[in-house]
Amino acid sequence: MSASTKLSTAVQALCVLAANRDCPHSSESISRETGIHPSRIRGILAMLSREGLVLSTRGLSGGFALAREPHTIHLQEIYCAVEERKAFHLDVTRAGGTKYPLPARVNGWFLDLFSDIQIQIEERMRTITLADVLRHIHVPQS
Amino acid sequence: MSASTKLSTAVQALCVLAANRDCPHSSESISRETGIHPSRIRGILAMLSREGLVLSTRGLSGGFALAREPHTIHLQEIYCAVEERKAFHLDVTRAGGTKYPLPARVNGWFLDLFSDIQIQIEERMRTITLADVLRHIHVPQS
DNA sequence: TAAATTGTTACTGGTCCTGTGACAATTGAG
DNA sequence: CTCAATTGTCACAGGACCAGTAACAATTTA
Q: Which of A2, A4, A109 has its CB closest to that of B88?
């Protein structure tokens, strides 16, 4: 698969944060709106926090909040924060080496093609912001 | 992942078939040139055979051969013959239903976006033929 | 009749993802 | 200060998918 549910979970959580920016949201409260396990939400929002997309504070009345305006948060950032692997990649564990020149050459060609496609996809995702998503799914922004 | 090694294996096998079109190639002989297990090659070439990309004959002096000219075989056909899953897809096992409207809406939006990207990728792969691959990896065509 | 070959199935092992629980670290309230 | 709430992180089990391999029936030719 190209995109795991992590990406969807991240966007859902960001939508919750964007819907009400007055106070931080706990993983519990986000879970109540999405049905996703709080621990999972914490794990994914921690990744977004490391990339500076959300702010997190511990302790009483702590929680998560958007770090920037929704129209400045791009889908590509969310994707890269959450997914380690490339969107479009090829498993080339079999190097081939000198014994089998054909697989080495074919895999090399594929790697070039796929990294090219990868760039195309990321460019496309860079044109979509969290504000666009909110508009499309009709979530009122505060 | 987006593309398994099946796609690479399929292209490698097609390159072997294209390099010498005079006689059918057995899975054994293709294995000797690629290092891939004969059973795996048979499985993948059976998929290509079902889609009409290669011809297969059993029995003595049987084997596999290209069904069409290399410049009429497009990468997109190979891909679709070999991969069940979409190149760019999202696991949306969690339907959400009426209890959680947010995930349902976000996942629906993602499905639209991804099928759009999928179309882009397939269009790109439709512009690449087996003959192009052979040229790029310097395999002489007979 | 026998040998060679494909087509298909089953099994094993590995990797990744999801869901879940647990607990230390941190922070604010009283 | 003490305690409760919260994040950050780790560990574990279960499932899905894939690669690699072996085995065997079906088919075809010599």
A: A2
pTM of the full structure: 0.89
Closest residue to C29 (CA, C1′): A60
Q: In a 10 Å sphere around its CB, with 0-12 CB exposed, 13-18 middle and 19+ buried, how is residue A11 labelled?
A: buried
Positive or negative CA dihedral for B42, B45, B51, B52?
Answer: negative
Q: What torsion, rounded to 10 degrees, do the Cα atoms A35, A40, A44, A46 define? A: 120
Bridge partners (DSSP) of residue B3 are A90
Give the start-to-end residue ranges of the domains of chain B.
5-136
Selection from B70, B65, B75 nearest residue B7 by Cα: B75
C-alpha A49/C-alpha A134 separation (Å) is 20
CB contact under 8 A, B5 and A138: no
Total residue count of chain B as it appears in this document: 142
- Which residues between 123 and 142 in chain A have a beta carbon less than 8 angstroms from any beta carbon of chain B? 124, 128, 133, 136-139
The answer as to CATH 1.10.10.10 being correct for domain B5-136 is: yes
- Pairwise CA distance, residues A59 & B50, whole Å: 61
pLDDT tens, N- to C-terminus, chain A (142 residues): 356 799 999 999 999 999 999 999 999 999 999 999 999 999 999 999 999 999 999 999 999 999 999 999 999 999 999 997 666 666 665 455 678 999 999 999 998 998 898 889 999 999 999 999 999 998 766 6
Residue A53 forms contact with B (CB below 8 Å): no
